[in-house]
Design goal:
Keywords: DNA replication, DNA synthesis, DNA-directed DNA polymerase, Exonuclease, Hydrolase, Nuclease, Nucleotidyltransferase, Transferase. It catalyses: DNA(n) + a 2'-deoxyribonucleoside 5'-triphosphate = DNA(n+1) + diphosphate. By secondary structure, this protein is α/β, with parallel strands linked by helices. The chain folds into four domains: 149 residues, DNA polymerase beta, N-terminal domain-like (DNA polymerase, domain 1, Orthogonal Bundle); 89 residues, Beta Polymerase, domain 2 (2-Layer Sandwich), CATH 3.30.460; 75 residues, DNA polymerase, thumb domain (Beta Polymerase, domain 3); 209 residues, Alpha-Beta Barrel (TIM Barrel). Strands 11-12-13-14-15-16-17 form a seven-stranded parallel β-sheet. Strands 2-4-7-6-5 form a five-stranded mixed β-sheet, sandwiched between helices. Strands 8-9-10 form a three-stranded antiparallel β-sheet. Helix 1 packs across helix 5. The protein starts with a helix and ends in a 5-residue tail after the last helix. The structure holds one DNA strand.
DNA sequence: GCCGTTTTCGGCCCGACTGTTTTCAGTCG
């Protein structure tokens, strides 16, 4: 069965092909919207298609339902097959070149008969492209530049950077700008403000008594390599690490409009504007135009922007076009979890396996963060990276932790493990040992290549293990570097909800696994969510903020997350805590 | 191609930039 990612790619491709074919733009947009809806869906779109329910997904109607049926039954969509014969793959690649879209690709194809990037470059070098109507010397030059850049990246799309690399840069720059006496307000906008998994660039919006002074400050920062397009309105900079930074200096009375606009997401803004056009309001980065009065309202704060639209302020993490407008209109926005709600961390490592700090050091760091409890979950007997913990070592660790707890006041260390889920779904410690522990996380670290049904069965077997309390990083993805392994998360969620197994949001910034979409679905299905740092050192306990951010993007409240609870309540939420209320 | 406090047709977000155009189309965020 096709995955949502594969279906989304198929719909995007069909949109590209229809665009090359000259379809009306709204039809093309419909395919792109549908592709996004499929990508954002936590349930299997093919499953819904087979059940005849797929048109309940916003953006998918009768026509697309038919195409999804064909895709399921024949493995392809007939119209895509037909259009691919008409427009070779090279032509679709052309539309992806920066500055080039379907119209210009089609023009070149029709005028020059070219349908590969190599052929196009040859013609551009011979000066043939400038003769095409609509192109000139500049167009040809830009095409050659785009082709060279494309080649340099090996045909890959523009890279995105994991948030944890971009955020410190963004905050450092914002801090430096705030420190300048000419600055007034300085805020990071864009996907960094929405705490997305990764970002393309950094947007900073500011107000200042002297815009030029702010631009100069940016240009003078040590981390900044170069600045271009600098002027009164702002500048674009590139850091030595290759991060693009856009600074916009705006008038104080429209700071709210600009911040709202550049925080996005695009989907959120489009939905917001479409909804407000029906009320005669036109939103732009400059203000809100009222058809009735013909007047444009400028807003100094973002709260005023939303208020002008009759809405409560919407937290940036929710602005992804995933139902937040409806919820805001109905006054049903969730009270999102915050980092301050967290009372413990249930997944970390010590020097016993591959951590950098000792048991005592990790506990001290957790206490310093104001936690009430910490579970020590070193890797298990078959970890396989030379850092495994034998059953004997783990038994000694249990005693060590018991002794440590004797000395601690108002803090509890839980003896745990991050046990490997073996390919057959079993854990790699004897049951008697797992039973003696306070806490067991099961994670998959090997055999990522299993097919979806085998991988799902493997996970379900683990979920049904009586001493497994929680599943760690359930999809195995690494943001921007490794896709998730094939697994039916809908079934995993259903099984976990059925027998009270918790599912983790792993906060390692390149994991954030499960992701926001699955976490929202899991919580809705009644799964108890856990947010863990997976710290391998005292300092990375602080990574929990990335997991909390994912939880916020999943619409979660504190009540839906196990480790916001006081120790006793948390212990009761464990499978073993429910089967016997006794605590060790 | 989707969708509905303008419901089954006729709409569908907003503005900047670029390069080419003699009034604007294409692309981007």
């Amino acid at each position: 069965m096709k995955t949502n990612a594969e279906i989304a790619a198929a719909l995007d491709e069909l949109g590209d092909l229809y665009e090359l074919d000259g379809a009306v733009s709204y039809r093309v947009i419909a395919y792109r919207t549908a592709a996004k809806a499929v990508r954002d869906s936590s349930v299997s779109i093919m499953g819904l298609t087979r059940e005849g329910k797929v048109t309940s997904v916003p953006g998918i109607g009768k026509t697309l339902e038919e195409k999804l049926r064909a895709l399921d039954e024949t493995g392809d969509i007939p119209s895509a097959v037909k259009l691919r014969a008409k427009f070779p793959a090279g032509l679709v690649e052309m539309t992806k070149l920066p500055g080039f879209g379907a119209k210009r690709a089609r023009q070149l194809h029709d005028a020059l008969g070219v349908d590969t990037l190599e052929g196009l470059r040859a013609l551009a070098e011979q000066g043939e492209v400038r003769k095409v109507k609509g192109f000139g010397p500049k167009g040809e030059e830009n095409l050659l530049k785009a082709l060279a850049a494309h080649e340099e990246r090996g045909g890959e799309p523009e890279p995105r950077v994991v948030l944890s690399r971009a955020l410190p840069i963004a905050l450092e720059i914002a801090e430096a700008l705030r420190a300048h006496p000419a600055s007034d307000q300085v805020e990071v906008a864009g996907s960094a403000r929405r705490w997305g998994d990764s970002v393309k660039d950094i947007d900073i919006i500011a107000t200042a008594s002297d815009a030029k002074a702010l631009v100069d400050t940016l240009a003078g920062l040590e981390i900044v390599e170069s600045v271009s397009q600098s002027g009164e309105a702002g500048a674009r900079a590139v850091t030595h690490s290759g991060m693009k930074v856009d600074l916009k200096v705006v008038a104080p009375d429209q700071f709210g409009n600009v911040l709202q606009h550049f925080t996005g997401s695009k989907a959120h803004n489009v939905q917001l504007r479409e909804a407000m056009v029906r009320r005669g309001l036109h939103i732009s980065e400059y203000g809100v135009l009222d058809d009735e009065t013909g007047e444009t309202t400028r807003c100094a704060t973002e709260e005023e922007v939303y208020e002008r639209l009759g809405l409560p302020w919407i937290p940036p993490e929710l602005r992804e076009g995933r139902g937040e407008l409806d919820a805001a209109l109905k006054g049903e926005l969730p009270q999102l979890i915050t980092l301050d709600d967290m009372r413990g961390d249930l997944h970390c490592h010590t020097t016993l396996s591959d951590g950098r700090n000792t048991l005592e050091e990790m506990v001290a760091a957790a206490q310093a963060r104001g936690y009430e409890y910490l579970a020590i979950t070193d890797h298990s007997a078959s970890h396989g990276f030379g850092n495994h913990v034998t059953p004997e070592q783990l038994e000694a660790r249990i005693d060590e932790i018991a002794a440590l707890n004797e000395r601690l006041d108002g803090f509890r260390v839980l003896a745990g493990t991050e046990s490997n889920i073996l390919p057959d779904g079993t854990l790699d410690y004897p049951d008697e040992l797992l039973e003696r522990l306070d806490w067991v996380i099961g994670s998959i670290h090997t055999s990522f290549g299993m097919d979806e049904s085998a991988m799902t069965e493997r996970m379900l077997t683990a979920i049904n293990h009586p001493w497994l309390d929680a599943i760690g990083h359930p999809t195995g993805r690494k943001i921007e570097t490794r896709p998730p392994y094939s697994i039916d998360m809908a079934r995993v969620i259903e099984a976990a909800a059925a027998n009270g197994t918790m599912i983790e949001i792993n906060s390692a910034p390149d994991r954030r696994d499960m992701n926001d979409v699955y976490a929202r679905a899991a919580a809705a299905a009644g799964v108890t969510i856990l947010i863990d740092s997976d710290a391998h050192g005292a300092e990375t306990l602080a990574n929990l903020r990335y997991g909390v951010a994912t939880a916020r993007r999943a619409w979660l409240t504190a009540a839906q997350v196990a480790n916001t609870r006081p120790l006793d309540e948390f212990l009761q939420l464990r499978k073993r805590g429910r089967s016997s209320s006794a605590t060790t």
